[in-house]
Design brief:
The chain is an alpha+beta fold. The protein has 2 domains: about 140 residues, Jelly Rolls; about 70 residues, Winged helix-like DNA-binding domain superfamily/Winged helix DNA-binding domain (Arc Repressor Mutant, subunit A, Orthogonal Bundle). Helix content is about 40%, strand content about 30%. The protein contains 6 helices and 12 strands. The strands form 3 sheets. A 4-stranded antiparallel sheet has the order 1-8-3-6. It has a 4-stranded antiparallel sheet with strand order 2-7-4-5. Strands 9-10-12-11 form a 4-stranded antiparallel sheet. A hairpin with a 2-residue loop joins strand 11 and strand 12. It comes from Aquipseudomonas alcaligenes.
Length: about 220
């Protein structure tokens, strides 16, 4: 289900973290704490060192919330400085700590220093931002094209790659409520309950309370 990370990639990420820690500011956040938001004047780029970050979209008029994606260790995220019109301001996009986490914050001036001293690392940061954008685009595709079952199944498989997932003889154990899964899949809590029952009957998951065992052969539809 989840491919192991090659050794050389792990070593490069360690080098990247070491260099960025020396240049940027290392910040710690408790679960649920806000980290950054779209349109903020102090826009920055962040590298996750430990824990996981959630990218949330909130409809301020309807009081509805959607989890666009998660950012795992060694992944990069950030928002651009942007003027937003009244219609655009209806949607609030922000990053918050999914778990207790540590991130490295890089401001514009620090990125310029990185460009001069370590252009190879700046390229990797830019690649990380591109991957972050592609994850968001993939999620848009899921919402538009996948069935509720496909969105929920894919969301469960995605959760297995986050640091708070636990290995299990049958696969991975993840902890998430039906409300949290509904935010990830863009559907109602009731729909999550029906689909989870189907997946359990098909032998793809085992669910008890907020804990779900995602079996090795569960497809990311």
């Amino acid at each position: 289900m989840i491919k192991p990370v090659p050794y050389e990639v792990v070593q490069f990420h360690k080098h990247l973290v070491t260099q960025l820690q020396a240049l940027g500011e290392t910040r710690s956040f408790t679960a649920g704490s806000p980290i950054a938001s779209l349109g903020a004047a102090d826009a920055a780029i962040y590298l996750v060192v430990r824990g996981a970050v959630s990218i949330q979209i909130v409809d301020c008029e309807q009081a509805q919330e959607l989890t666009a994606t998660h950012v795992a260790p060694h992944e990069v995220f950030g928002f651009a400085e942007a003027e937003r019109s009244g219609e655009q301001q209806r949607l609030r996009i922000h990053a918050e700590a999914k778990t207790d986490c540590v991130v490295i914050e890089l401001q514009r001036s620090q990125l310029l220093v990185l460009a001069v001293q370590h252009p190879d690392l700046l390229i990797e940061v830019c690649n990380g931002l591109a991957r972050f954008s592609m994850k968001a685009m993939e999620k848009v595709g899921r919402f538009a094209l996948f069935s509720a079952r496909g969105r929920i199944s894919s969301a469960l498989v995605d959760l297995c790659a986050l640091p708070d997932a636990a290995t299990h003889p049958d696969g991975y154990q993840v902890k998430i409520s039906k409300v949290g899964l509904a935010k990830l899949a863009g559907c109602t809590r009731e729909m999550v309950g029906r689909v989870m029952k189907e997946l359990h009957q098909d032998g793809l998951i085992t669910s008890f309370g907020r804990k779900t065992i995602v079996h090795h052969d569960t497809p990311a539809l």
